[in-house]
Design goal:
This protein has 187 residues and is mainly beta. The protein contains one helix and 16 strands. Helices cover 2% and strands 55% of the residues. A hairpin with a 2-residue loop joins strand 7 and strand 8. The longest helix has 4 residues.
Length: 187
């Protein structure tokens, strides 16, 4: 059981029998009253976001969410195919809603985490930072920094991202999968 002030970001709690991921939490005290934790959380089954206030006397149960490693195989026509880490013959597909936007930063044959609750698949967690190769990049033109010195490049997964002008084709970049932004050049 979690105390009201232990309900923080990225925790998964049970609320009204459903698993919720805490998006934001803010403990505050209003004038002479007891402290309250104002929480914004997302229902992992329905995707609905709601705001709840947990008072000092309230507790929340941490949800038993299972994580297991699976291998991303390929994407075709909006279907994402995966297999078990140890047994490639056990293949299954997930749709775009279940995998989320972050799957665009995952190369084929990469391990990701499958998140499930009571044998119901909630989604896929990808690494926060991934390293991807640039396959298409326009050359940097001297003096072309009016737009802030950024250009778009195409990554090996087919996704495009804004990067500084010095990035060239063949470079390996570190990308933040949560924001979809360039972090640094690796080589």
């Amino acid at each position: 059981m979690l105390e009201y002030n232990e309900i923080k970001e990225r925790k998964v709690i049970l609320y009204e029998g459903a698993p919720f991921e805490v998006l934001t939490s803010h403990v505050f005290r209003k004038q002479q009253r007891k402290p309250v934790n104002a929480v914004k959380m997302k229902n992992l089954l329905t995707g609905k976001v709601m705001e709840v206030s947990f008072h000092q006397s309230e507790k929340a149960e941490e949800a038993e969410v299972d994580n297991r490693k699976i291998k991303f195989l390929y994407e075709t026509k909006g279907e994402y195919w995966f297999c078990e880490e140890k047994d490639p013959s056990k293949r299954f597909k997930l749709d775009t809603e279940q995998v989320g936007e972050q799957i665009h930063y995952v190369k084929q044959n990469t391990l990701v985490d499958l998140v499930s609750f009571d044998d119901k698949i909630l989604g896929v967690e990808v690494p926060i930072k991934v390293e991807l190769k640039v396959i298409e990049a326009a050359p940097a033109v001297k003096g072309n920094t009016v737009q802030g010195g950024l250009k778009q490049v195409k990554l090996e997964t087919g996704f495009t991202v804004n990067v500084p002008m010095f990035v060239n084709e063949g470079d390996i970049l570190r990308i933040n999968t949560e924001t979809g932004e360039y972090v640094e050049r690796v080589n």
